[in-house]
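FIELD: query
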Amino acid sequence: MARTNGIDLCYEIFGRDDAEPMLLIMGLGAQMILWDDEFCQQLAARGFRVVRFDNRDIGKSSKLTGGKPLKPLELLKLRFLKIPVEAPYRLRDMAADTVGLMDALGITSAHLVGASMGGMIAQEIAIAFPQRVRSLTSIMSTTGNPKVPPPTREAGAMLMAPPPTTKEEFLTRFAQTWKVLRVGSFPLDEAKDRERAERVFARGLNPAGVGRQLRAILASGSRKERLRAVKAPTLVIHGTVDPLVRPEGGKDTAASIPGARLMMVEGMGHAIPIPMWPQIIDAIDRHAHGAKAQQ
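FIELD: result
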């Protein structure tokens, strides 16, 4: 555990102490263990000191308070009347959490790899704390630009579904959720879903915290204009069939950050399935080591 920005964050490190630091930032309602152990180990084997952690309000990190469950009416007001969503904290606060974790670990700057909401947090760090970022990899994320198409009906319904009330219901929902997000058949991942879900459940659920994180995303608005100031070498990775953050979200991110490279992964949804690890780990590795060579 590390004390940062007035809260406690739970973290884990893979790799040598003297290797290039790389922070993996997870998405909405996702614990750090959804960066699979083997995924982290493979990155560490490429010469990185890999740090994964639970964002605030998830897993073993501090739970906050406040914020009512989102209602469809509130989302409609945001979408059509541009009335902002109220939130106890914003993505900028979560960016400050991450920087505080770096301070606690003695890391002056790091390669940032963010997935979904984690990509949004990484973008906020690159905007507000540019000196802390060696390189930025934004995966299946977006700029907050309201012109990007919304999730598919199925993915959107999943996001707004009431939380499970029993362990069995949670285990079933976990498998259903990832089947929707992965889009298509991925037997290796499907075989691991129950084990992953058991581990997530054992570390503790916090449905109210997931609601606060969702509010943070919606209340933070668009980063599109501010992203033009980002100087960090940037790689944007996005799936061609992402049902939650549509492919246009990745394209918009790459178009908004000067010099960013866009890698569209054929057949990838809103997940990093095991068969796609080699190409994604290769891309992150090349990008981060390439950024170091430029400095």
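FIELD: remark
The domain at 2-152+207-294 is CATH 3.40.50.1820 (Rossmann fold).
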